[in-house]
Design goal:
Layout (H helix, E strand, L loop, with lengths): L2 H8 L5 H21 L1 H4 L4 E2 L8 H29 L5 E5 L8 E5 L4 E11 L21 E11 L8 E14 H13 L12 E2 L4 E5 L2 E4 L23 H33 L5 E5 L2 E7 L2 E4 L5 H11 L3 E5 L5 E6 L4 E8 L1 H10 L1
Parallel strand pairs: 4-5, 12-13
Antiparallel strand pairs: 1-6, 2-3, 3-4, 5-6, 7-8, 8-9, 10-11, 11-12, 13-14, 14-15
Helix pairs in contact: 2-4, 2-6, 5-6, 6-8
The protein binds a DNA duplex (20 and 20 nucleotides) through helix 4 and strand 4.
Length: 358
DNA sequence: ATGTCGATCGTGAAGGTGTC
DNA sequence: GACACCTTCACGATCGACAT
């Protein structure tokens, strides 16, 4: 990493889209590598059959806490890098008050430079939905960025430490905060609920405000959900700047990849519990739509029974699991002359047992 | 039958109000 | 004043009715 370049970025003296690209291509890949080293991961691991809740409601608590811990560790690693490069007068600080953002780069005199909001999503969460609800008026277009960390528990990477599982970062996404907020608001304001009545959907001094049958209320926490911010080809568009286009492209990629990442982890894990062979891809019409081991396959694509049969035949499968975007599964079992549906709309945690019992 | 979208949850800090 | 009980917040998420 180039010292002079890093100093320029941290001082936010480059254009926002250039900062976003640099953070995305140079900086956070290095941070992610360091985070994923055994020396760092071992401090977050689960050892000797330690368990975390499996119940959905309490799982969320663990995810929230992991979010805080990852955020802290990113800053800690960053503060390790600075002196390595001989930068002594700048540091990453934690914003203690519950307000935007999470981390601020500061000079020793307290002057604020780059500011970062960290969001963490677990790959296999059924509906990944951290909220970015900071109002535009609170965002500085020159210094503020949103960093999304995609993580999950992973049993690999332990050489000297004997953890069962430790969190691993799979991908980090960088968004220009102001552009992301513009996309969010352009979408939200132009897509109010159908039952507004005579009211409006908008903002007061502190919050997004929504309206149902002419009764106003503080928005309940759906505004700014990361998975609901923007849609490709939406009819209304904010003013296009390089930063906005960069953020839009990153967002579209993000939306697709985070769903796929969870599917990959779930499919591979369940396949390894069901069969012992090597994992292969399931390819359909030139597209990689899933994974198979021996006679069991997982795909993430809606399909009719005729197509299920075709894919099963091509890949010599007797069991095919088809997952939706929220990893709800339909389990098909091939019979000589027909196809049985072992389960429909099933949660991921039940799938392996259903297959084993059939 | 899948995707969309509003409503709601559990946590650990704490503040606010009511009852004795 | 002591205590019970309800509500607040941000966080990352899940639920479930309804639209497509």
């Amino acid at each position: 990493m180039d010292k002079e370049e890093l100093i320029k970025i941290l001082h936010a003296t480059e254009s926002p889209d250039k900062i976003a690209k640099w953070l995305r291509k140079q900086y956070f890949p290095e941070i992610m590598n360091r985070y994923n080293l055994e020396a760092s991961r071992k401090r977050f691991g689960l050892y000797r059959n330690e368990q975390i809740p499996s119940n959905e409601r309490n799982l969320t608590d663990v995810r929230t806490r992991m979010g805080v811990l990852i955020e802290f560790e990113l800053a800690r690693l960053s503060n390790e890098i600075l002196p390595e490069l001989g930068i002594e007068d700048v540091f990453w600080s934690y914003v203690v008050a519950n307000r935007f953002p999470d981390l601020e780069i500061r000079e020793n005199n307290g002057n604020r430079l780059l500011r970062l909001e960290i969001k963490c999503l677990q790959c296999i969460a059924e509906e990944k939905s951290a909220n970015f609800d900071t109002l535009i008026k609170d965002i500085n277009p020159n210094t503020d960025f949103v960093i999304v960390c995609l993580w999950d528990w992973d049993d690999g990477g332990n050489d000297t430490c004997q953890w069962d599982l430790a969190p691993k970062l799979f991908k980090m996404y960088v968004f220009h905060a102001y552009s992301l907020a513009q996309l969010r608001d352009t979408y939200w304001l132009n897509k109010p609920p159908a039952d507004l009545g005579t009211g409006y959907q908008g903002f007061d001094v502190r919050y997004a405000v929504t309206c149902t049958d002419s009764v106003f209320s503080k928005e309940q926490g759906n505004y700014g959900k990361l998975t609901r911010i923007w849609k490709k080809d939406f009819a209304y568009r904010p003013v296009e700047t390089p930063a906005l286009l960069d953020t839009e492209a990153e967002y579209i990629k993000f939306q697709r990849e985070i769903i796929r990442a969870g599917f990959e982890i779930l499919a591979k894990k369940q396949l390894s519990e069901l069969r012992n062979g090597e994992i292969s891809y399931i390819v359909y019409e030139g597209q990689n739509i899933g994974y198979a081991v021996e006679d069991v396959g997982y795909v993430m694509k809606a399909m009719r029974k005729s197509k299920v049969q075709e894919i099963a035949l091509q890949n010599r499968l007797s069991i095919l699991v088809s997952m939706t975007e929220k990893y709800r599964s339909t389990i098909y079992k091939m019979q000589p002359d027909s196809i049985d549906e072992l389960a429909k709309n099933e949660k991921p945690k039940n799938v392996v047992e259903i297959i084993n019992q059939s």
